[in-house]
């Protein structure tokens, strides 16, 4: 039955049953009235929107005292298993006279309506749902319940009170939770609120779109499907690209395509690409996205465009030098644990500053971690020029040991050579001096921490071998500090 612009009145008894090819009762720009003591039954009907009743263009249902309604086994392909109501205009413009179900005597509160609504086994889009409306906020303006508007909204079409005449029953359950689960509306708002509407996005990497549509009852609107006019969205993720390298922010406009317009702008902050990736266009589209740097080397530096991450062998440094991304062997970086049997690669899922913070010592930074931080300077008594904290005090014992071992002993050695005219190319001193030169020209056995001794020798004597070697090395180089 289709009604347009003219009122319809039902009296005594009315039944709509087994309408399988369209909604049983469709009303547009009008009202459908049920007189006192009317019994209305809508059973096993099916339609696109509203299996039993569909109300368009602010049409509404008017009921009277002692009316009874049964909605059972109705199905809707989209929304409103039993009742679907579509209205225009913003909810702020509506009054209690705009509720989709109204009582003939407007002075009577819902709990005194003396009516019975029974909903049983109604579904929409294969989900349990009895009522779908553009908004139920006008119905919350009906007096007789809590002063708080949110609590009123939770009680709309759940107007059941003990010793009251109004009955609203859903699948033989009169509880508020059963009622709320059967009612859906258009999107009324989005979560989070405006203060949190900022997402961080790496150009080209799918980002989680943390948007939750809420209905009039402030619960998750499960009937909503998120679409995007520009880029494919899956699992609530979105792809956003900057148009030039100077873009640091962007904007996503979110709007609910429905009768009641709800919209907001989501601020996008573009993150820097992780080390090893650069921001450039691809062959797929002209927009910029984080793409692997071409300067890769097997076993040392590798990159993956799908995961947007790069890996660097521990003991190497990566950073910007003269405006370019470079990497190299880093003696001053934190080294491997010598108990490791295999090389360790670092996943570069961080900024360059964070990389320096994690892999340079607490006293150094800069290119190859060789720049001492403020109030630090290279130690002249350490062959790796380790950065140490500068102090304004003098340690007499330390200064004395340094002068004796690193100044006096070499000086005595040179004076003895000069006074006694010791031949350096022949005689007894030739062998030790040649060995000293050989040891001085050989790199450290551990390659500055890159090569693990145990991985080479795999024996308990590896540490002893290292100490013997370094002891000989230090003695011939007159290094005793």
From TrEMBL:
Its main location: other. This is Uncharacterized protein. It comes from Amphimedon queenslandica. Signal peptide: none annotated. Keywords: Cell outer membrane, Membrane, Secreted, Signal, Transmembrane, Transmembrane helix. The chain crosses the membrane at residues 397-420, 432-457. InterPro entries: POMP_repeat. It is found in: Cell envelope; Cell outer membrane; Secreted. One of its GO terms (cellular component) is extracellular region.
């Amino acid at each position: 039955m289709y009604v347009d612009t003219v009122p319809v009145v039902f009296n005594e008894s009315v039944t709509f049953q087994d309408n399988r090819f369209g909604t049983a009762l469709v009303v547009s720009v009008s009202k459908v009235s049920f007189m006192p003591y009317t019994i209305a039954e809508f059973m096993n009907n099916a339609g696109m929107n509203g299996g039993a009743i569909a109300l368009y263009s602010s049409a509404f249902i008017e009921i009277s005292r002692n009316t009874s309604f049964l909605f059972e086994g109705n199905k809707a392909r989209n929304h409103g298993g039993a009742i679907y109501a579509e209205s225009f205009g913003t909810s702020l413009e509506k009054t209690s006279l705009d509720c989709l179900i109204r009582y003939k005597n407007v002075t009577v509160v819902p709990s005194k309506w003396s009516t019975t609504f029974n909903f049983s086994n109604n579904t929409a889009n294969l989900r349990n749902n009895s009522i779908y409306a553009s908004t139920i906020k006008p119905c919350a303006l009906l007096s007789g319940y809590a002063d708080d508007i949110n609590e009123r909204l939770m009680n709309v079409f759940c107007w059941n009170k003990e010793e009251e005449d109004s009955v609203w029953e859903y699948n033989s359950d009169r509880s508020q939770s059963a009622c709320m689960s059967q009612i859906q509306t258009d999107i009324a708002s989005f979560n989070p609120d405006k203060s949190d509407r900022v997402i961080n996005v790496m150009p080209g990497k799918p980002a989680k779109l943390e948007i939750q549509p809420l209905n009039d009852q402030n619960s998750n609107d499960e009937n909503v499907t998120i679409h995007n006019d520009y880029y494919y969205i899956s699992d609530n993720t979105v792809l956003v690209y900057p148009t030039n390298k100077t873009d640091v922010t962007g904007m996503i406009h979110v709007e609910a395509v429905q009768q009641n317009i709800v919209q907001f702008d989501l601020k996008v902050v573009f993150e820097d690409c992780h080390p090893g990736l650069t921001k450039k266009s691809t062959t797929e589209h002209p927009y910029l996205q984080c793409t692997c740097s071409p300067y890769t080397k097997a076993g040392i530096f590798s990159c993956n465009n799908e995961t947007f991450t790069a890996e660097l062998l521990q003991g190497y440094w990566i950073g910007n030098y003269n405006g370019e991304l470079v990497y190299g062997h880093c003696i001053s970086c934190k080294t491997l644990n010598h108990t490791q049997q295999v090389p360790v690669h670092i996943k570069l899922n961080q900024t360059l500053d964070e990389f320096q913070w994690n892999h340079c010592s607490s006293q150094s930074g800069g290119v190859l971690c060789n720049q001492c931080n403020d109030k630090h300077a290279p130690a002249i008594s350490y062959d790796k020029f380790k950065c140490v904290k500068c102090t304004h005090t003098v340690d007499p014992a330390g200064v004395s040991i340094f002068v004796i071992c690193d100044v006096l002993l070499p000086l005595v050695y040179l004076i003895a050579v000069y006074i006694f005219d010791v031949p350096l190319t022949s005689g007894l001193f030739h062998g030790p001096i040649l060995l000293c030169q050989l040891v001085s020209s050989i790199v450290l056995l551990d390659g500055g921490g890159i090569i693990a001794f145990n991985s080479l020798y795999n024996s308990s004597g590896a540490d002893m071998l290292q100490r013997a070697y370094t002891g000989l090395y230090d003695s011939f180089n007159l290094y005793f500090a």
